[in-house]
Amino acid sequence: MRRIFLSIVLSCLLGVGASGASGTLAAQTLSTVVADALAAAGLTPADLALAVIPVSAGQTGLWLNADAPFQPASTMKLVTSIAALDLLGANYRGKTELLVKGRISRGVLHGSIYLRGQADPDLDVPALWQLLYRLREQGVRHIRGNVILDRSFFQPQRTDQGLPPFDESPEWRYNIVPDALHLNGGFLHYVIESSATSIHARTEPRLTGVKVRSEMRFSTADCKSWDDEWEMPGVAVSSRSHRVSITLHGGFPRHCNAEADLQLFDRDLLADRLIRQLWADMGGRISGGITAGVTPEAARVMARHESRPLAEVLRHMNKSSDNALTRLLFLSIGAAATPEFREKYFTTQAAAIARVGEFLAASGIPIDGLVLDNGSGLSRSERISARQLADLLQKTYSTSYAPELLGSLPLAGVDGAMRNRLKNSLAAGRARIKTGGLRNVAAVAGYVADVDQHMYVVVAMINHENARVAKPVLDTIIDWVATHGL
Question: What is 95-306's CATH topology?
Answer without folding.
Answer: D-tyrosyl-trna(Tyr) Deacylase; Chain: A; (3.50.80)
